[in-house]
Amino acid sequence: MAYGDYVARIDLYNPTGADQNTPDICLVTGNIYAYVCLVGAVISVKTLAISSAGDITPSIIASFTVATDPLSGQGKPSITMISPGVFGVLYGFMVFNGGYKAHPRITTISISSDGATIAAIDTETYTQTSVGMVGQKL
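RE: above sequence
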């Protein structure tokens, strides 16, 4: 590709409403992808299909609510594969207790290879202390 060349857009998927707020995406398997998004204070994971040619199937396969904490909406959620079928969703929230303090959470979820089933595995909250972050099961 030479200087000044541009890349043509193959396909575009524009989630409706606030779904497009701070999205992050990762491969599940084959042509199935998962993306995490923030809608107000709700963190959701959704699955969809994208072909190897870049064509996007414009319908959501499955949707799963990770968190509905009114303080969850602080910070950008992210999703990453831990092992085949197991994913980590990292998100944070702030608590005002004499000053804002970060309390990031990680929730592990399973996603089936066809993207149709999403389920929670575990959630951990990290609490800020004077010596750093300490994990705390929910």
